[in-house]
Design brief:
Shape: globular
Number of helices: 3
Number of strands: 21
Largest sheet: 19 strands, mixed
Oligomer: single chain
Number of domains: 1
Radius of gyration: 23 Å
Distance between the termini: 45 Å
Strand content: 35-45%
Order of helices and strands: EEEEEHEEEEEEEHEEEEHEEEEE
Amino acid sequence: MDDINSPKQKFFAFAEQPIFGTVIANNGTFKRAAIESLEVTGRARTYEIPGVGGSDYAQDNDVILLTSGSMPTFTTSGPFTIYNSPSMVYAHFQYVDEKDGTFMYSTASGSIRPDFSADEGHFLTWLKVFPDAANAGQHLSHKYPDCIAGTMKLSCERDGMLMIENNWVTRGAGTTNNDTSGATFVALEGDTHKLGIKDFFQLTAVEIDFMKANGTGIASSATPELQKFECEFTQDIIKSGVNLDGHTFKSYGIVNRDGTFTLQMLKDATAETAIAQYVAGDPVDIHLRWGTPEVNVIGHVAVRVRGKLTADPTFPEEGDIGCIITGRLTKASSAAESSYIRINNGLTESW
């Protein structure tokens, strides 16, 4: 029998936080997340004061740890699901366009910079939940508020699921020993899990639009023999202002939005077109869909990545000869969108 405090007994959950700086209560409602770990680092800042010097050890008072102003980080990774991943996407892009019957059209638009201190944007309270050996009915949770995602990576390869990974920041050191035994933990199982995940062989469309010069239109479109896909959206999160009452910074600032993509396909005519597109310096639009572009059916997911190829394609041999193209996310103009992720989560949300 597993020890009650074994790793198999802990789990992770999150809740959407309506007010920045106000953590979700211990008896609130949280969604369980299908991730393997949540390891927080940087909960305190360290000062090392010059001490007695010479060959002696530092004294206790020479090393000072402060939690004020800390911005810890952690990473979550797991399968993309239509009922959890919308929050992960929204917490990175910080923008969502709600459509009738569709949970979200989330867009990579660099012009969106919410004022978190005015409760704009999207932020979460994360929990790491442990059972208590002395009281098996009690959950002792570590709680981290005001979480937003600095990076977000989507990946999918042959014989695998669509995966999502986020690197998060939180404001302050968080709290431990939170009794969340009175909380509601939403866990979807069975057929709902089956509907929620997206498998490589369930893809309904894989397309590359080879754009004309300066992205003025589509020169040609093709369907590559996909083997693997990965895109990573990045942005730097910085501390902004000072909260004189809370001993922390007032808000987040978002700068340096960027991203990359990699696509591995079989070496064929489509790959040759991609090679020519790299030399010409013209952009590409890459589309992966589980369903329709408008995601007008529950469970549909559509991913569009726009960018320019930035390196010579490579040709690995893994049985069949493949072609790997890599690029940087771009957009046609300052007013345009770069990429999008569309998700129909009508299974658990109503709009």
